[in-house]
């Protein structure tokens, strides 16, 4: 297979970040590319995903997923085209979703690759609205939070890949009110004017608790937490009796170097009989067929909208990840390798 590339650039973690990640914690290195082994495929990645959970994998601590190894290529969602195959059921030209991102070319065990149809939706959507983040929103709202028609819903980080979908799904399923928080006035405008939120606020413009009470004077029934910190504390105050919260992420504290205090009003959980439940999307793969059916239909009808922030070039992978942590993305943050 003389037409195969001889080398691939890939991002390695070379030091454990302390606090905010720094450029010197990472290295873009070259690695040889060879023909795929038996039962494996060689994929030219078109896009790879950067996600908040990856910050946790940079720490050498026990967690629900193993930490990144130092001086090895990092991992994450990617979509691309098969350029060589030694696996039954995969042919050159197939498009696949897999978990070996952060690199230009990936040799992937066939059992860990899933074919996707580039004619049904752009490849990048399989990393976002039709991928892990979309399923996170769907499962977190309908399964974990037990959403029901008439619920008032508050979403933090609502202009992000997950939050923007949660708010729209709640609206489509009959929420009485949908409120979102975001980190800029432009994002607030987007939530209301494009995504159909009933109200939204810039959390940088004042105390979250005060702004939430103003936006939801009758309280909320469901809180979808992507931020933690003062957002969680504010939500606990505003949740009605028997309220439910899906704890999906806490990006506000991922780079903290000291222990983060818990909500000061946690005792309210007792009197209000609240349910606060953490979630991992991998626990909800059984919902995949239902999720794809519903979301693909909403996208086709124009009822559900999505945005992507696309950073061009593998050399900008670190910058894309740091931008994600800083909230510079609108919708899904993706690195494109298609140039």
Q: Give me the secondary-structure category.
A: alpha/beta
The number of distinct β-strands equals 15
Q: What sort of overall outline do the alpha carbons produce when their principal axes are compared?
A: globular
Low-pLDDT sequence parts: none
What series of H and E elements makes up the topology? EEEHEEEEHEHEHEHEHEHEHEHE
Separation of the first and last Cα atoms: 23 Å
Secondary structure tally, helices: 9
In the CATH scheme, the class of the largest domain would be Alpha Beta
Q: What would you note in describing this structure?
A:
The chain is globular and about 65 Å long. It has two domains: 7-127 and 306-336, Alpha-Beta Complex (Quinone Oxidoreductase, Chain A, domain 1), CATH 3.90.180.10; 132-280, NAD(P)-binding Rossmann-like Domain (Rossmann fold). The protein starts with 6 loop residues before the first strand and ends with a strand. It contains nine helices and 15 strands. Strand 8 (152-155), helix 3 (161-172) and strand 9 (177-182) form a beta-alpha-beta unit. It is an alpha/beta fold and 339 residues long. Helix 2 crosses helix 3 (161-172), helix 2 (132-144) crosses helix 8 and helix 5 runs parallel beside helix 6. Strands 3, 4, 5, 6, 7, 14 and 15 form a seven-stranded mixed β-sheet that branches.
């Amino acid at each position: 297979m003389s037409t195969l590339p001889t080398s691939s650039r890939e991002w390695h973690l070379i030091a454990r970040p302390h606090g905010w990640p720094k450029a010197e914690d990472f290295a873009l290195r070259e690695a040889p590319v060879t023909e795929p082994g038996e039962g494996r495929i060689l994929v030219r990645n078109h896009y790879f995903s950067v996600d908040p959970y990856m910050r946790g994998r940079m720490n050498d601590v026990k967690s629900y997923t193993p930490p990144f190894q130092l001086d090895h290529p990092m991992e994450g969602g990617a979509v691309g085209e098969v350029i060589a195959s030694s696996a039954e059921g995969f042919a050159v030209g197939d498009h696949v979703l897999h978990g070996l991102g952060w690199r230009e070319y990936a040799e992937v065990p066939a059992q860990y690759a899933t074919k996707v149809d580039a004619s049904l939706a752009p490849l990048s959507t399989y990393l976002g609205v039709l991928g892990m983040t979309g399923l996170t929103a769907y499962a977190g709202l309908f399964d974990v939070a037990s959403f029901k028609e008439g619920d008032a819903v508050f979403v933090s980080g609502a202009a992000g890949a997950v939050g923007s979908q949660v708010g729209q799904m709640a609206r489509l399923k009959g929420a009485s009110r949908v409120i979102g928080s975001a980190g800029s006035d432009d994002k607030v405008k987007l939530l209301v004017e494009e995504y159909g939120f009933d109200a939204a606020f810039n959390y940088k413009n004042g105390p979250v608790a005060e702004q939430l009470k103003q936006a939801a004077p009758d309280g909320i029934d469901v809180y979808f937490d992507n931020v933690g910190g003062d957002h969680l504390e504010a939500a606990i105050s505003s949740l009605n009796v028997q309220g439910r919260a899906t704890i999906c992420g806490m990006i506000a504290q991922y780079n903290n170097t000291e222990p983060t205090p818990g909500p000061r009003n946690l005792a309210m959980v007792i009197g209000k009989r609240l349910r606060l439940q953490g979630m991992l999307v991998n626990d909800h793969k059984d919902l995949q067929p239902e999720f794809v059916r519903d979301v693909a239909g909403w996208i086709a009808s124009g009822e559900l909208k999505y945005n992507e922030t696309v950073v061009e070039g593998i050399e900008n992978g670190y910058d894309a990840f740091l931008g994600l942590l800083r909230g510079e993305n609108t919708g899904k943050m993706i690195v494109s390798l298609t140039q």
